[in-house]
Specification:
This protein has 218 residues and is α/β, with parallel strands linked by helices. It has 8 helices and 8 strands, in the order H-E-E-E-H-H-E-E-H-E-H-E-H-H-E-H. The protein is globular and about 65 Å long. The termini are far apart. It comes from Ancylostoma ceylanicum.
Length: 218
Amino acid sequence: MWSSEPVPFDPMEKTLHRVYEQTQQSDKRREYLMFHEYPLEGKPPMMTHLFENKQKERIIAAKGAPEAILNVCTLPEQEKERIRVLIREFGLQGYRVLGVAGTDFKGEDFPKRQQEFEFGFIGLVVFYDPPKKGIDEVFRQVYDAGIKVKVITGDNADTTKSIAQQAGIVNTAEIADGKELIKYTEEQLMRAAEKKGLVYPDVPRSEISRCECTEKTR
């Protein structure tokens, strides 16, 4: 919760605040003020918030894509691999997963980049937002009308594939990766857009190219 905005507007962050209220005996949010922050950035992305109370006690918390959090945490590689297995298992079930970390940094000379903190791994936060009831029938009608459906997402590929299948979206077996797509020629991009149902963009250029390509194949 501490890595979320103090006054949340994102549905996921609102959920984190609500769970905090329901599970904590003592609500410390009014005791701490956020005095420094690192906005969501990086590939994969993460964000970090720094709070302090009147006694100069600090809470420094980060959250983001699980791999981003694992990259900045001081964990043995064997432990990281164990966590990656859990992340994949959650993703295949359609869960959205965030990694959470913290640090006890004491100084005033904050690093330029949040990735330079020495973080300790706290855990994973798992969300489930199922497809709306009846959405599979909507997609069936879309397909019956001869309309092709493509999913472009920045979320975890396993999670997206699971949710797409639950929603009735077909052709989810092959996923186009942005890192590969930027290497394609125009002709290869058009073939990929025709063949693949899910697109997992990883760089802005690939996302733009794929959108243009998909328009041409309609």
